[in-house]
Amino acid sequence: MPILQSNNNGTMEGGLHDKVALENTLLQNWYACGINLTKAAVDSLATSFLNNPEVIQPEVAGTLSAPGVYIGQFTSNPIQDTFFNSTGWTKGQLFVNGYNLGRYWPVAGPQTTLYVPKPYIQETNTVLLIELVGTTQNTVSFIDTPSTGFE
Asked: So what's the architecture of 39-143 in CATH?
């Protein structure tokens, strides 16, 4: 999490304010950049992965461990409200059909499901997860009711 500090005109500036290391190695000559997460950009990313036969295929469950982008498709019949079940995933962001539906972090909560409204669902759907930590999961599930994970 970036450290925020106030500058002289009262606005907040964020950023790293100390040396940055990766696995105890000091990083040099690096820069931080934003990621375009608009609906159009996410749709384009998902389409390029789904239409590219060279894309890395999912590994066997239990062997994944690195952060990454996970893209897949599912069908829905009937089309109705649903909930993404984040159990088995670690920490990240969920997109369905290009719509940003929020962050998941099941061990921190406050919930383990994310609401996917009926207007965002189609007969064939694309799901994209930006997994920030890594997981042993390579499938997603959608359920009919919300869950806090503390029932």
From this structure: Sandwich (2.60)
